[in-house]
Amino acid sequence: MNLTSAFSNKRDISQLKMEELEDLEFHLQNREKSLRLKVEQLRRDLADIETDRAKVKTELSKR
């Protein structure tokens, strides 16, 4: 079984040693955590933008 594009090395996973698998698992967990944090920050940023745009639209409609 080959690894997905989440890991750039396309070696057959069954050929990896136990230590390599553990290292890969650790790397993938950290990468997932990092990406999830980025996604959450992007969601917060988008929510802030939507709030700001709504305020701008309200102000524009008053003028």
Please give the structural blueprint.
Layout: H1 18-62
Could you characterize the architecture of this molecule?
The chain is an all-alpha fold. It has one helix at residues 18-62.
Key features of this structure:
rod-shaped; 1 helix; single chain; 71% helix
Summarize the entry for a quick read.
The protein is mostly helical and 63 residues long. It is built from 1 helix and no strands.
State the share of residues found in helices, binned by percent.
over 70%
Name the shape in a single word.
Answer: rod-shaped
Provide the residue-averaged pLDDT.
88
Rg, nearest Å: 21 Å
| Major sheet summary line | none
Distance between the termini: 63 Å
SS class: mainly alpha
Q: What is the total tally of β strands? A: 0
Unreliable runs, pLDDT <50, ≥5 residues? none
The total count of helices amounts to 1
What is the element string, with H for helices and E for strands? H
Estimated share of beta-strand residues: under 5%
